[in-house]
């Protein structure tokens, strides 16, 4: 490990920040220091690299190609976003005035990205930080009975693909071929129901607590609060319930035994994430490297023109519950 990397230390309320020195050769810097950066990621779970001078999507793609073990193709997206380059996506569409609560990326997918690379090509005028939460701390903070239940039973995600909100089933699965969608869902323990109007409803049961493969810590790895109906804007939720009923919501979550997750529990989970969140204001050219299995991420409200892109790498298999569909 180089001397510059040895100086990285966490700061209270902030993720570890690494000064990469004068910018201008992000790909070359990653080529030289990639192994040491991966070691830091194993140690800390998240590292913000400052000074790389990332300016374009091509810059980000070059860094991702050198740092990860292979680009990750997103499937089952909740919100449609744009593939900008090989493995590099636009940020999830989300109103600037609304906070995005902390969550793990694609925790409901059996082949989930292990590493996320967020790159700031343009920092907002105010706000817009990416809160980061060590969910081993969340697992230790939440009521033991709740954590034990989710570890034992898992959690259930139900989705109704339509035109009202989020990605269509064609966008989520990357195809307009129903047979291809059916094959994917069978292979990934997802139950499917096609509706008379051409829509799709799915149901999948997933693990909600994992043992981290590197640290051995128990981590709260799920989106049971983030994809809850109570995470929606109340007015939007009421409109969708009136139009489609509870079975037609774009997404909803339950405990693994099928019981509803009360709003008070969703609030409790989000509050635990808030207590352990750290953040660093974005600067142009920053690179944020995140262990997706250990750290959840969100987004603060902001003003101005925020341009943050994400590359997902290092796909890792997460086991499904037997007979989960």
TrEMBL record:
- Report which superkingdom the organism of origin falls in: Bacteria
A Gene Ontology biological process in which this protein takes part is: antibiotic biosynthetic process
Q: Name one GO molecular function term.
A: dioxygenase activity
Region of interest: Disordered:
1-26
Q: Give coiled-coil spans as residue ranges.
A: none
Keyword set, alphabetical order? Antibiotic biosynthesis, Dioxygenase, Iron, Oxidoreductase
Domain (TauD/TfdA-like) ranges? 29-312
Cofactor names from the entry are: Fe(2+)
For this entry, the protein name equals Alpha-ketoglutarate-dependent taurine dioxygenase
Q: Which organism is it from?
A: Pseudonocardia alni
